[in-house]
Amino acid sequence: MITPPTSTQQLEGALSGQTVVVIGGSSGIGLETARQARIAGAGLIVTGRDPVRLHRAGEELAALSTARLDLGDVAGLARFLATLPARIDHVLVTGGGPGYSPIADLDFDEVLRVLDEHLLGALRVARGCARRVRAGGSLTMVTGTHARRPGVGLCVAAIAAAAVPVIAANAAIELSPMRVNAIAAGFVDTPLSARILGDDLERRRAELRATLPIHRVVGAADVAAVAIHLMTNTAVTGATYDVDGGQQLIP
């Protein structure tokens, strides 16, 4: 099996003395990014929805602090952002997944919740970061590649995936010299993917191994490596990086 290269030596010291906030950092892509940021020397502030997972992540990462947080909780998010230290270096925002449903079966209360969290939540975080992230620091938003190709059940996910890069690009202009970027991920082998697919997970993994140009499944570490790159490369802003193993190239 082809595996991603180990880059621990490259990470060491890259974020030394810096503070990284990971919103959604108790599992999946957020947790793996926090791990890599810790190796790179950063101090971490981590949020999550599940208190058990959040406590476990905080202990593993020796986090500066943790906070239970839901992006859909407007008042809670405002309180969290207002209590951040005066100088933050980098913020990563991950979500809990958009959900998938055919248009005929849409629950519009759920649609509003998802879009509020992914789109207005991203804007709320961006506004809060404008007062907290240092010049040259970064905000990175994680979304998907669902907007690239239509499919049954993908409409709401596509709206979010299309809008987040636009938010990032506009924020990069309006909130400079803070840098703002987005990561568009395809299928990533995480606990969230396992919960969504259930018994179909192994079939999907096998299908991707057989069809992706990279001949392996994308993992959280692959996305995290790009997130760290966007924190450390001070020439990048307003960009969206695809991390999908070439999935969108397959007919």
Report what the structure shows:
- The chain has a single domain (10-243), classed as Rossmann fold, CATH 3.40.50.720.
- The protein has 251 residues and is of the alpha/beta class.
- Helices cover 43% and strands 18% of the residues.
- Strands 3-2-1-4-5-6-7 form a seven-stranded parallel sheet, sandwiched between helices.
Rg measurement, Å: 17 Å
CATH class: Alpha Beta
Number of strands: 7
Give the low-confidence spans: 1-6
- Please describe the biggest sheet, giving its number of strands, its sense, and whether it closes into a barrel: 7 strands, parallel
How many helices does DSSP assign? 9
CATH superfamily assignment? Answer: NAD(P)-binding Rossmann-like Domain
Principal-axes geometry comes out as globular
| Run of helices and strands | HEHEHEHEHEHEHHHE
Strand content: 15-25%
CATH architectural group = 3-Layer(aba) Sandwich
Strand order across the biggest sheet?
A: 3-2-1-4-5-6-7
Question: Residue share in helices?
Answer: 40-55%
User: What count of domains describes the coordinates?
Assistant: 1
CATH topology (level 3) name: Rossmann fold
Supply the helix-strand structural class: alpha/beta
How far apart, in Å, are the first and last alpha carbons?
24 Å
